[in-house]
């Protein structure tokens, strides 16, 4: 295999002419569309609408009766969380563009105002279907399993008594009513917190005077309350908002409650930081996090039935037009349903799965001995994440280890990786932690870890100005005899043991000098100065990742033109970069067969005659979040190029982040990627959805005699089978 991606040939490959008119991504399922049957409207899908199409696929899992019931509830909660982030970041950004008078047109031909119009249409339908799924599908199905959700007026007498006592003891002392009148200005409402607005009448005046008051609800109170009832089977739940609405009159003696409605406000939550002007990035981000609660409102969610006067007052105060308001037929913030996963009902959940320990990296032996013998590739969560933690932990305790370097983008609240780095520093090793403070929504956690590490003597750095450090790298320098040897861990996922049980990712351990030299060079580039670093084996953004991927795509196109075998398979989270898409189009025109496994956003339009008829795009949404990025280029009759790493094919990953893509060189690992990972994912006909040229994702069509096949179930079964084989006693 060449030490670097081979450059493309001198043959010219014509890029297709681009028609930039907008293409709307439908939010409902439509029948599959065969190639050549419908004229193409645009060469690119809109990024935001494609992202919403992904969340339509998440909702499909919540509606799928073949998914265990409590897992369906979790998918509904995940959709809620995803929409929150979408409004906080993406919609907020588009609103800012409109407010600034920007008419910038995206690659799909849509300006910010038109994008917002289409987003509203798609989200309105998505939210309607989300709440219909809750009310019509999940609530009855849960009730059939004796998990009952009740509104206040559905409570039995003894349940009502318990709820009122719960309110008196646990809720009333915590809440503070806020009157809304001339002497009490409208308060600043915190982002995504529960509030109840109460309509009141003063019964002491001849003409009943309508008043309004707010009950802001602190986050510390549980939003889902289990009603304790002796002698009844099953569980009964009531939302906290229902309890507060039921008992709201207790806060306003002498007034009559005309109505009470729960609502919450979503605010712009992006950070605005000029790193070049910020002398202390840590302090600046802390200040910005405090300012987030004062971000502009971008969405109002409110229960149906609120009177027009209160509704109008809320919208005017928040300065929100009605297209950013969603009247919900059900409880606010369905993310709170995630707590149902704690119910002890294994019959309503996925069968338990314990990740398989690696027989190549047993916990009782030093990992360095095994890694010296050859590269080790792990597939999480089917392989345990413990070897990654053990690698860092044992390095911290090994007296022969001199230094450790570690990137941290997102990690768990009780991170064993951070504990190991602290221990290593206290053991006298030189320890460097490269922490990304701006990992979205994990900023506060990362600030906490940065301070904790600094207090322990760890050298904490924050990467290159203007670039997020998104790569996943760990480097250990160890004295062995008279020489020093480097050991590295490279990955597609974060150093987070919790998400490693939920995300599918790859981990590579290696002691190969050509790769570890590049890893060391990467760290030196991030902690020091280097305008044009050179890398032998790694492909690193923002330096050579984009150009290398383009070269590899073009080389396949040139091989196809020359009549040589040509194939591209690429697995990622998102495909957005226009230049990369254009070169994929050109490769398709040249005859390259291209399979793209893109879980989320995909701006490429597949299966278009004369443009992309050789490109197939599928998305897999299932039990685990497909998170690995893996790339295969056939390279004619030579050794294929196979890479994995942290980067999606998006402008931000190519140019505004530090990303590392690493080669897969070990023969067994290469064979596994082709014959297992890619082969099985391209066979999935259960959780896979195929993207069509009209923007619709439809289930992969299953032949009459073809059995159902889920790639995630396949890898679970394979891991369980290996476990049985490894513990089986030898025959007498």
Contiguous low-pLDDT stretches (5 residues minimum) are 1-41, 272-279
Main sheet, how many strands, which sense, barrel? 10 strands, mixed
Radius of gyration: 28 Å
Overall mean confidence score, pLDDT: 87
In the CATH scheme, the class of the largest domain would be Alpha Beta
Total domains: 3
What does this structure look like?
With 732 residues, this protein is an alpha/beta fold. The protein is built from 17 helices and 27 strands. The strands form 4 sheets. Strands 14, 18, 19, 20, 21, 23, 24, 25, 26 and 27 form a 10-stranded mixed β-sheet that branches. The longest helix is centred in the first third of the chain and has 33 residues, at 112-144. It is globular. Mean pLDDT is 87; it is low at 1-41 and 272-279.
Question: Care to give the gist of this entry?
Answer:
The protein is of the alpha/beta class and 732 residues long. It is built from 17 helices and 27 strands.
Keywords:
732 residues; polyphosphate kinase like; Endonuclease, Chain A; 3 domains; ten-stranded mixed β-sheet; 17 helices; 27 strands; 21% strand
